Amino acid sequence: MKQTAVVIAPGRGTYNKAELGYLSRRHPDKAELFAQFDKYRADLGQKTVSELDGAARYSLATHTRGDNASALIYACAYADFQTIDRDQFDIIGVTGNSMGWYIALACAGALDAMGGMNVVNTMGTLMQEHLIGGQLIYPFTDDSWVEIPGRRGEVLAKMAEINSRENHVLDISIELGGMFVLAGDDAGLAAFVEEMPVVQDRFPLRLANHAGFHTELQKPVSALGMDALPEALFSQPNIPLIDGRGGLWYPKATDLEALWDYTLAHQVTQSYDYTAAIRTAARELFPDVFIVLGPGNTLGGATAQALIQAQWRGWSNKQEFQSAQGEQKSLISMGADA
Amino acid sequence: MERVGAEDQAFHKNRRKVTEGDLPLGKPAEGPLEDYEAVAIFRAQCLSRNLDRRSRKMQAAGDGYYTIGSSGHEGMAAVASALRPSDMAFLHYRDGAFQTRRSAQVPGVTPTWDMLLSFATATDDPLSGGRHKVLGSKAMNIPPQTSTIASHLPKAVGAAYSVGLAKRQPPEHKVLEDDGIVMCSFGDASSNHSTAQGAINAACWTSFQSVPLPLLFVCEDNGIGISTRTPRGWVAANYSDKPGLKYFHADGLDIFDTYRVAREAADYVRTRRKPAFLHLSLVRLYGHAGSDMQQVYLPRETFEAWEDDDPMLHSARLLIDRGVLSAEDVTSIYDEIEAQCTRIAEQVVMRPRLNDAKDVMASIIPPARECATRSPPSAEERAAVFGSDIRQMEKVQPMSRLLNWALTDLLLEHPEVVMMGEDVGRKGGVYGVTQKLCDRFGRERMIDTLLDEQSILGLAIGMGHNGFVPMPEIQFLAYLHNAEDQLRGEAATLSFFSDGQFTNPMVVRIAGLGYQKGFGGHYHNDNSLAVLRDIPGLIIGCPSRGDDAAMMLRECVRLAREEQRVVVFVEPIALYPMRDVHEEKDGLWMRNYPSPERRIPLGEVGTTGDGPLAILTYGNGHYLSTQAAKSLQVEGIETRIIDMRWLAPMPTEGILKALEGAQKVLVVDECRTTGSQSEALMAMLHEHCDLPKARIAARDSFIATGPAYAATMPSAVSIADAARHLWASS
């Protein structure tokens, strides 16, 4: 019997050293699709995704740049989506994290393959060109993925206090399961790093080559994106989409102007609530499984944390999730073991 | 095995008709409804219908507890589309489709999960916390709907009235948008209820004099109330020509027509700030509720004709004819939603439910809310507002004057406080308690209402929904009774049914109790508080002296403003002007005005004297016992008089502490013996205290006019007699 599935598209930071060669290794049968992507990039004078994926070695400077990473991740994830066995899985919803929203739009058919590349690449390039602000990660759960009492409030209070200082910007960029991704300007980020205790040996963790996504800092990028990417690129999805507020967009019932506006204005300049997206998918669609597209498998933890926060299937911590996962997989990461 | 009920059989017939193209006749799709919006409406209709069927399956399996459905009324989804999610909606219980459509307009809401949790009475039901299956949602601006017929209409009028005032004088906890409208819906049968008639009349009365009232009434006319048919044409005849109320009619089976007309009606209300009446013609499917066997009282052809006119078949016809969906698309949406509801229903029944009194009762008292701390008004500000009264403050004054000043200070300090009632404004109240307040604070905050207590309380409840702290006045206690459901069934239950998310804080002032010398008879001297005393969560204060009254009233406003409580403040009319206690011009019952920061906290009782004979009383009883105490003292019986001040919740701890060192206790109650405070006091004393006890209370009678005005109630003489008797007994 078919399993119902919600598919999750990953965001930036998922194509790392281990993923080098992902396209050729995983998707040798999709040369035609990649050729289209490559032509699109070549015409713009950008390195093609095949070149990037086929590079002799992974270069942090090259592979994590917004204009390169975005297209590369899109190609991997979109190709992964095409390989899902539809006889095994009935896909009842698609969502994504951050830039993964653009990929989700393409997977759901609201953008076609090249429309998706156009949106991803344009926004990734604009982000790189402007590179306004940056991001950091800070957790508020313990090792068992249980919320530390009061921690969330402490982080938000500190963030608000820093944001209120003159010449400091700091805001929620992404609600990511048990973590906040915060975004701000250098002063705001530096103040947070300086003033918050280090937890789990590595947080607060600044993210290289990431801009202050999903904050008002990106208003100029949003305006340029709206100029470059017309509403006509969008069409009715053929699979329900869940956005970064937990909102649902159903086939034939989607206001395309609103979808365009959400994609290029709202979610670019306002917080992206991945936790809400997973909560809506988990509760309202209640799939048998969540499938996280590659590249990478870094989104699995955040997804499980979001499911635990939603008390999905009664899970309340990491151990219960893992035990259930051991009996019957509810979370599949296509990018694992790249 | 899953139950297959009549509603399932009818639904499968519906599905077959879609497949076979056997769809009802009707007008083609017309109007401004966009195709994508029409599909969104249709999806909401399908979800609502499936939830109805699911609720009956869950009940049959012992997993669900409420089966009044929305089948036949799914056109309400198109009304939701015509409104904004920020427009507060007080819904009829058949408005599942309104809720499912609005859910899709508010990102993050999960209607299937949420509504199935409520069917299952799971504790994580996001609205009521598992207390009741009710429509509603904080995120969607839908307060929990109630089941007492049409009782939500008066507060919808109040909420609509509040919009304009909140725009000009925004309260700190304002909820509604300046250009928002309020919607309330009800059935054709409910429209006959006196509460509905009163609310609609209040709306007309308001609109007729051009006071803004952005309120959309939606009458869902399915032609029958349980088993009683509504006369054909009755709703239109009744409401199409009301003063100040614009009438609209739509075919509620046709989402395009419903949307078109609902948009027109909503635009009219939004732009003109006047009320409108949207009349939708609908059908009722599958009976009144799961337990209702409509075949017992309806000819089969009648409800089969309704099934043939199923609004979902009409939607399917309209969408297929317009080329938006194919028949296969329609049935695949049916199947997709059927599967979705089945999956989720299996999960929600495993969620925990409430199982003890503590958990059930946890939301009776609403949570406290953060309020901005403001500096108290300066001496200059107070002087400017009080005018010549400020000089009077050096002298002792009767209660009515001190209450007037306390109200002045409260209105000055808290701009969100508003008062409403019969004659409270320009006249300043029947007894002058609100004199000058209209001049001091304007007619917008001192609202002279029409003569209808349901409307007064509804106005307060609705304004409380929008961040105001209303102080409605009921002119006489006896007038409360025709409106008490507004407190009992509405105001007091709001926090309970919304798990503390919706609140309507207020202080209801009621002039009441007996002893007006020869004036007014029963209806102006009613001496029973029984109707208030058993309402869970309700606070009742009853002062006896002017200084106490001022300080208690300040506490009442604090309780409403900061703790969101519903408070009733019963003001003994006979004590308003009271000056003397023992002899003419002794002036002993008057007091100085206590400085504005002084309050008497909830639960704090007042004690005078420390004698071994305790007299436990309140209101007029305190005054009369003070008189009695003097004659007892002459006889060598020393008393202590304990004034409860707070009648509910009973200040047990304070009373017991005040009784320490006493040897006997006499309960004095001016209210009727049956159902009076004295019954509760005697029970409490019996349970918690070993002192010999007795009581004197009013006889179970109504109050007479003329010389016998006080004959049925305790007097100073009868109290003294009762005290002597108790004191002498072994």
Give a short summary of the structure.
Chain A is α/β, with parallel strands linked by helices and about 350 residues long. Chain A is built from 14 helices and eleven strands.
Considering the chains and any ligands shown, give keywords for the structure.
heterodimer; A: 338 residues; alpha/beta; 14 helices; globular; B: 730 residues; five-stranded parallel beta sheet; 13% strand
Characterization of the model:
- The complex is a heterodimer of chains A (338) and B (730).
- Chain A has helices at 22-26, 31-43, 49-53, 60-63, 66-83, 100-107, 113-130, 151-163, 186-195, 219-228, 256-269, 274-285, 299-309, 318-327, and strands at residues 3-9, 89-96, 134-139, 170-176, 179-184, 205-207, 241-242, 248-249, 272-273, 289-292, 331-333.
- Chain A is α/β, with parallel strands linked by helices and 338 residues long.
- In chain A, helix 5 (66-83) packs antiparallel against helix 7.
- The longest helix of chain A is centred in the first third of the chain and has 18 residues, at 66-83.
- Chain A is globular.
- Chain B is elongated, with a radius of gyration of 29 Å.
- The chains are: A alpha/beta (338), B alpha/beta (730).
Helix content of chain A: 40-55%
Identify the most extensive interface between protein chains.
A-B, 25 and 27 residues
By helix and strand content of chain A, what is the structural category? alpha/beta
* Strand arrangement, major sheet of chain A: 8-7-2-1-10-11
Largest sheet of chain B: 7 strands, mixed
The radius of gyration of chain A is: 19 Å
Low-confidence stretches of chain A: none
Described by the principal axes of the CA atoms, the overall outline of chain B is elongated
Counted beta strands of chain A: 11
Strand content of chain B: 5-15%
Can you count the beta strands of chain B? Answer: 19
The residue fraction in helices of chain B comes out at: 40-55%
The average pLDDT score of chain B comes to 96
Number of helices of chain A: 14
Q: Into which percentage range does the β-strand content of chain A fall?
A: 5-15%
First-residue to last-residue Cα separation of chain A: 28 Å
What's the story with the biggest beta sheet of chain A?
6 strands, mixed
Number of DSSP helical runs of chain B: 26
What number is the mean pLDDT of chain A?
Answer: 96
